[in-house]
């Protein structure tokens, strides 16, 4: 069952990839302007739906195999987030029928799932705090809310690629490139992790932790930065020697991964720039030249209008109910809780600015991008760096 | 109060932008005459926009501003984020000095963090002030808008002034031959799409989803209820939050219940996931951290008792058994608004220690002494003239700065004893200091010794006792907030005006949001009626380079 589950996820991944190309074809197809849809986009959406069903199959089979909802660790949560992103895209596609959304939403979902797969994929048993029906209620609702909000980012990104003037460098082109660079760096992380994973790289260090105790750590990437007073163990002799050693309070292994991901990202980015001979966003601009800006703007806003209540319900209200049951208090200023509050406050500000201050179009699109950045921060940085009570999600 | 009378005869409050009834713009500057009407709040007279003389007017205007509200939200957001850079004081390990901890762990940044008071950010006066300001802003913002908006929507007339129609975002003029027939078709189509239709002199006002306009105010009320609930936690007696450590076999008063309830712990159970015993699919994950390293269950089997009769000092309480329960994480014991949670535990705390009085040379023993480590006796008589006195007892033994034995706490983590052993041949007794794996004979060589003969341990459960009378208020606030949010977000307020003007059919439409949906709906309504599909005048304005104005506002 567990094996079948993994296979289904793999199939879904491939299908999303194929779907992306179909949507790419749909954009190039000139007939689209007249009819609004064409054979390419039909193929694209069909592939996306089959992919989604396959991933749903992954979810269900894994649930059966594990005996609990597969949303209990970082891998499971993030893949579920990717799945709901595809689901949200499919729904929005049927409301608005625009193919360009698929060309951007599916790659983002692919990145999310690929990123998830870099973390331990085993089925983990539930610790006592997680043994509750609120696990599936809270986590799935919160992830669904975030996924719908992510569609707003996708639409906002399309809007920005279309409107930002690429003829001369400016603050707007710079920040748009930063967004592109972040997406590429995620790809960099996936590629670097996969490469060293395939090569079975392993280097074991002994080091002195902040409590002055000797500890061991296993690197799965060559150590550019070593742990505090780190020494390669005998079995790892001959492995790459770190260039510098970190003080004890810094988690050198994670920092090392970040550095490798950045290197991967920079190499990829520079390569793209050399091949394209222009900014990434500028190279993408022709793809979106036929986009109806008002409609894209409305999709971006609509996604927030739909996603915000779902997010509130899942990430705050259900979260509080469960926290009261499991942790004795509904609110405890745990970093993950605070970041859910921050996300909520941000989108509340977004809605007020849009509805009462008339922030439409580009301003609204930038806000959608920032909102997604906050969600990703909560998913990535808070789990891996700040940790806190939710830290089991990261191991 | 001044009033403004419109040419249609309707009397509007001072400050109204366009007539509540017919929509004729009241106060106009010539340069704005051609632009689209700002439909936000129906052009109603808001206190904050109308009066600005007294201090109260100014405070009112300040807090009713969305700009101020958003600024408060953003400041709170940034402050909240700062609070997650380093752990808050409540998450520090116990028994550390925060001043040293932050500097120790995080260097000068940590020191600065502590000096700025960010170690307790969410409880700081200024963070509370921020939340309170948001609360005030919620109340004032809502009142400032909802009353005039309610009035304007209630007073709205069917027949509108041509200037009102012409300046709507969606507008068209059609010439049709059979006007009555066309309007009848339109009316049928509108009714089919569940529009509420009002008619006056052959003019139509079709409206739906007006209740969604109240969504924002409903959700703000929900937030205010929630904030009031949160504030009530500062009222004494509204909630109880106590810690209770209870040992297996012990019966103890539950703190925070004023002697009303007692709890007995039957057993504490700690289980881990085991390879081979649990689901095979977990094997890989168990291997990663080690067999028996992943917690599976924390459980305390308890019996809840209630005291019968009044509390009398110094008297053993009479107890009545109420129920047996297995307290587990996620499954607290609930009774009479109290909840008992499994939060912590300590395994194998020493409970009883046994020693044998032994002749050191012959190895002969003369009886066993069982010492209850929580309640030791002063003297143990072994018969036949053998007796052991307990001169001193150190439950949590260590040597203090002067090198004298002392105890860190009353908990028997590391018990040590000073015994005086009496035997028929040693009537004055021999003194022996006994600690774990250590014996000292302060007055020279003894004949007898206290030989360790066994240790009995038991588990201790850490429980949290809660009672919270604010929960239902918070729950109510949350529910009202969600209702308001859904009401405002998932429905739209749409209006379509169809009027006969100078032998033409004028059609205008407005929605508070989702214009794409409204346009699609109008397309279906007008299908086959011969009326022209309205033009989106916002597009025209934008193309003419006048853009920037916002018209599709809600609330």
From TrEMBL, chain A:
Gene Ontology terms describing biological process: cytochrome complex assembly
Transmembrane regions listed in the UniProt entry: 6-28, 40-65, 77-96, 101-119, 139-161, 173-192, 258-276, 303-326, 338-355, 367-389
Chief localization: membrane
Domain Cytochrome c assembly protein, first and last residues per copy: 72-182, 264-390
Keywords tagged on the record: Cytochrome c-type biogenesis, Membrane, Transmembrane, Transmembrane helix
Record flagged with keyword Cell inner membrane: no
GO molecular function, one term: heme binding
Source domain of life: Bacteria
Any single Pfam family the record assigns to this protein: Cytochrom_C_asm
GO cellular component, one term: plasma membrane
Membrane topology type: Multi-pass membrane protein
Subcellular localization(s) per the UniProt record: Membrane
Protein name (database record): Cytochrome c assembly protein domain-containing protein
Species, as recorded: Saccharococcus caldoxylosilyticus
Lineage summary: Bacteria, Bacillati, Bacillota, Bacilli, Bacillales
Automatic annotation (TrEMBL), chain B:
Assigned GO CC terms: membrane
Primary localization: membrane
Record lineage: Bacteria, Bacillati, Bacillota, Bacilli, Bacillales
Keyword annotations of the record: Cytochrome c-type biogenesis, Membrane, Transmembrane, Transmembrane helix
Name assigned to this protein: ResB-like domain-containing protein
Species this chain originates from: Saccharococcus caldoxylosilyticus
GO biological processes: cytochrome complex assembly
UniProt membrane topology term: Multi-pass membrane protein
Lineage top rank: taxon: Bacteria
Subcellular location per the Swiss-Prot or TrEMBL entry: Membrane
């Amino acid at each position: 069952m567990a094996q079948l589950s993994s296979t289904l996820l793999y199939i879904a991944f491939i299908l999303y990839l194929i779907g992306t190309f179909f949507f790419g074809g749909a954009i190039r197809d000139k007939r689209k302007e007249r009819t609004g849809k064409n054979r390419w986009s039909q193929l694209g959406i069909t592939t996306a739906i089959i992919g989604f069903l396959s991933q749903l199959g992954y979810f269900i089979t894994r649930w059966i195999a594990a005996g609990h909802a597969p949303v209990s660790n970082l891998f499971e949560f993030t893949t579920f987030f990717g799945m709901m992103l595809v689901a949200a895209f499919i729904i929005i596609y049927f409301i608005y029928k625009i193919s360009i959304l698929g060309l951007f939403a599916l790659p983002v979902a692919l990145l999310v799932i690929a990123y998830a797969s870099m973390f331990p994929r085993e089925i983990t048993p539930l610790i006592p705090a997680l043994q509750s029906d609120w696990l599936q209620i809270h986590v799935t609702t919160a992830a669904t809310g975030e996924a719908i909000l992510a569609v707003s980012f996708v639409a906002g990104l399309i809007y920005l690629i279309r409107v930002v003037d690429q003829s001369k460098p400016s603050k707007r082109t710079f920040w748009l490139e930063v967004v592109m660079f972040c997406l590429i760096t995620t790809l960099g992380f996936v590629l670097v992790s996969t490469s060293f994973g395939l090569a079975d790289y392993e280097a074991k260090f002994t080091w002195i932790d902040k409590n002055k105790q000797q500890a061991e750590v296993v690197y799965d990437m060559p150590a550019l930065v070593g742990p505090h007073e780190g020494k390669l163990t005998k079995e790892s002799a001959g492995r790459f020697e770190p260039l510098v050693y970190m003080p004890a309070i810094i988690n050198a292994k994670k920092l090392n991964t970040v550095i490798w991901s950045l290197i991967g990202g920079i190499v990829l980015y520079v390569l793209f720039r050399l091949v394209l001979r222009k900014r990434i966003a500028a190279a993408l601009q022709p793809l979106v030249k036929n986009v109806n800006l008002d409609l894209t703007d409305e999709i971006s806003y609509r996604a927030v209008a739909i996603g915000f209540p779902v997010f509130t319900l899942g990430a705050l209200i259900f979260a509080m109910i469960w926290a009261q049951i499991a942790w004795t208090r509904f609110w405890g200023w745990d970093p993950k809780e605070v970041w859910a509050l921050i996300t909520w406050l941000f989108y509340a500000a977004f809605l007020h600015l849009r509805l009462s201050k008339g922030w439409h179009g580009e301003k609204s699109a930038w806000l959608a991008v920032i909102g997604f950045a906050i969600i990703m921060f909560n998913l990535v940085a808070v789990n891996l760096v700040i940790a806190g009570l939710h830290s089991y999600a990261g191991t | 109060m001044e009033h403004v009378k419109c040419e249609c005869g309707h009397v509007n409050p001072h400050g109204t932008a366009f007539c509540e009834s017919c929509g004729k713009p009241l106060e106009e500057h010539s340069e704005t005459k051609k632009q689209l009407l700002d439909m936000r709040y129906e052009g109603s007279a808001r206190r904050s926009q109308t009066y600005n003389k007294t201090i109260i007017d100014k405070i009112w205007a300040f807090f009713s501003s969305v700009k101020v509200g958003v600024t408060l939200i953003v400041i709170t957001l940034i402050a909240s984020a700062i609070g997650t850079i380093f752990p808050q004081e409540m998450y520090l390990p116990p028994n550390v000095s925060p001043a040293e901890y932050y500097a120790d762990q995080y260097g000068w940044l940590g020191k600065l963090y502590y000096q700025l008071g960010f170690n307790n950010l969410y409880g700081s006066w200024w963070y509370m002030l921020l939340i309170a300001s948001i609360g005030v802003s919620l109340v004032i913002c809502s009142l400032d808008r909802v009353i005039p908006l309610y009035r304007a929507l209630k007073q709205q007339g069917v027949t509108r002034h041509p200037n009102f129609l012409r300046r709507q975002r969606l507008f068209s003029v059609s010439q049709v031959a059979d006007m009555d027939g066309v309007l009848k078709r339109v009316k049928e189509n509108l009714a089919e799409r569940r529009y509420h239709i009002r008619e006056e002199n052959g003019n139509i006002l079709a409206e739906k989803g007006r209740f969604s306009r109240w969504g924002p105010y409903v959700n703000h009320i929900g937030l205010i209820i929630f904030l009031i609930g949160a504030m009530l936690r500062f009222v004494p007696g509204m909630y109880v939050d106590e810690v209770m450590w209870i040992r297996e076999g012990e019966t103890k008063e539950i703190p925070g219940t004023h002697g009303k309830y007692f709890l007995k712990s039957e057993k504490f159970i700690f289980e881990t996931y085991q390879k081979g015993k649990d689901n095979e699919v977990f094997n890989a994950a168990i291997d990663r951290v080690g067999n028996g390293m992943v917690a599976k269950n924390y459980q305390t089997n308890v019996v809840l008792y209630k005291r019968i009769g009044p509390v009398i000092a110094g008297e053993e309480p009479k107890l009545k058994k109420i129920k047996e329960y297995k307290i587990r994480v996620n499954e607290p014991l609930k009774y009479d608004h109290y909840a008992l949670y499994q939060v912590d535990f300590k395994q194998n705390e020493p409970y009883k220690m046994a020693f044998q009085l032994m002749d050191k040379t012959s190895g002969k023993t003369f009886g066993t002494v069982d010492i209850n480590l929580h309640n030791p006796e002063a003297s143990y008589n072994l018969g036949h003239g053998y007796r052991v006195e307990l001169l001193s007892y150190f439950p949590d033994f260590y040597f203090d700065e002067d090198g004298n034995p002392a105890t860190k706490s009353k908990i028997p983590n590391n018990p040590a004893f000073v015994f005086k052993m009496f035997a028929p041949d040693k009537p004055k007794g021999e003194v022996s200091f006994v600690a774990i794996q250590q014996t000292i004979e302060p007055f020279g060589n003894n004949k007898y010794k206290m030989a360790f003969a066994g240790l009995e341990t038991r588990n201790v459960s850490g429980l949290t006792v809660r009672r919270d009378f604010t929960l239902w208020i918070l729950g109510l606030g949350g529910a009202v907030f969600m209702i308001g949010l859904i009401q405002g977000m998932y429905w739209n307020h749409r209006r379509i005006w169809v009027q006969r003007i100078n032998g033409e059919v004028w059609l205008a439409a407005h929605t508070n949001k989702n214009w794409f949906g409204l346009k699609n709906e109008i397309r279906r309504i007008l299908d086959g009626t011969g009326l022209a599909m309205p033009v989106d005048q916002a597009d025209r304005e934008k193309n003419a380079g006048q853009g920037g104005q916002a018209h599709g506002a809600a609330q």
